[in-house]
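new request in #modeling-help
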Amino acid sequence: MEGLLANLLNGLSWGMLLFLISMGLTTIFGVMGVLNFAHGSLFMLGAYLSMQFMRWVGSFWVGLLLGPPIVAGLSVLLERFLLRPLYGRDVSFQLLLTFGVMLFLDDGVRLVWGAAYHVVNPPPILSGAIPFFSQSYPVYRLFIVVLGPLVGIALWAFFAYTRWGKVLRAAAMDRQMAEIVGVRVPAVFTAVFGFGAWLAALGGALAAPHQSVGPAMGERIIIESFIVVVIGGMGSFPGAFAGALILGLLNSFGTTLLPDVQMALPYILLAVILLTRPRGLFGAEA
Amino acid sequence: MKPRLRGEAVPAVLVLAALVAAPFVLSIYGVIVLTEILTMSLFALSFNLLFGYTGLLSFGQAGFFGAGAYFAVLTLIHGPASLWAALAAAVIGAALLAAVIGWFCVRLDEIYFAILTLGFGMMLFTVAHNWRSVTGGSDGLGSFALPELHLFGHSVSLFHPVSFYFLALGIVAFGALLLRRVVGSPFGLLLRGSRENSLRVSFVGADVRTLRLFAFIMAGALAGLAGALFAFYNRIASPEMLHWSFSGKAVLMTILGGSGIFLGPAAGAAIFFVLEHAITAYTTNWMIFLGAILVVLVLAFPKGVLGSLIDRWARRQQGPPP
């Protein structure tokens, strides 16, 4: 029973981190049509920068506040000067460019922070564990489990009810029509890319005390969040939520129940879903 | 089509002549690098049959490349000590895998095809990584002896890099010629048609899924052949050869050289490895340079390096527009 519960919570907390980064990925894809390979690296950069601020200032919250906006700022420059010239060209060039950015950032953090893994402690208020039946469970993971859905609901409300959200949806639905009615689509794209990067970096900053910070953390999460976005349906928030939960739980239960094939489980799930529902669980059928 | 083909014959013969002459000019180190470039060229060319000619971005091509490597090495360890048997096992094994996986994948296209092939490739990676008793797990399979090459009644030891280079050149030239014949054939024309407009191709009576499946199998078989060669070259078959980031290398080399030119992927492979060897001589952080160079090349060469150069040359031949 306790093992089951611990597995469940582990799966949920990993799922919620996946959800944070997948939301940015799915928004960028939904609005701009760009599949951002560098998204995992932005997640990783968020973790490193927040860790650095934590070391300088000594506060987790300052790191959480300062790290992600810097990543967002860098991403705005990235979109404006590198990605924008490619919009008229084949999609594969955008993929290749973000792939190049990924290589650059992954090796860049290795150059600055070294190849070793760093441990980040959760803030005092969220450290420690609370008793759970006969076992105990880290408070920080529970915090992630609660925070994920809150951010998701806030984002969904933003898209559904605010003027800005409507502009974004309009630009995603029909770029030309949005431009005709006066939406500055290039500016919207830049903002969306920066915002998605902020979400990824926030996920990274939150992940730092959850796992450890190292140069391979981006490569692992980018593929898992691709899978989340695809099985949920590209551009869909409920889809990203469902996909992240499924993948998170598959990860934690798979590790204990089927350790030999655990590594392949996400890919098997991906294949089954793509072959039965080609546009994902929540995607509009083509 | 005919005049185009004749126009290509001259440069092709020149390239082949240069490659045959290369070992007599280059140092042993240069020959080794060139062998690697040739092997990866075949891998990238096989990928481009799907990407450039059929319009399908496969992110799982390394799965077949690595599977070919394992099939070849397993044949050498457990089967006859024959180079030809090992190569045949690689090609047939990779083709069978591609037939099964392709049967599923050709149902999808665009980004969904890319993600699904990535998924299947990673399943193969997991098999290579976790099935320790057969594949050696994460250490790979390295303990095998490279047999002598038996050709026309002669036996040649492949221990010397130059002998191995000529084996690689022969195999890669064979593979490239085969691919060139295929893309120039009516079948290749149908593939290109399905890339431009698959609906129209199906209206004229062609079964697009079957066309794509045959392209997928052929690409997989040739990737397996390249993988076997790569395993012989490195004296090891390891799981990293099946990882998605290895598939990414094929994508990268192809777009780097130019997917619209037949030999573009090979040019991309050459640029990639020459840069890698030049930069790793000075620093271990080669990836940061590769990333930066890639970004610049993508922005500066819209059709890849070879593609853009040929375009520029063709424009100069035509003279300025009136």
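bot summary: Residues 13-215 of chain A form one domain.
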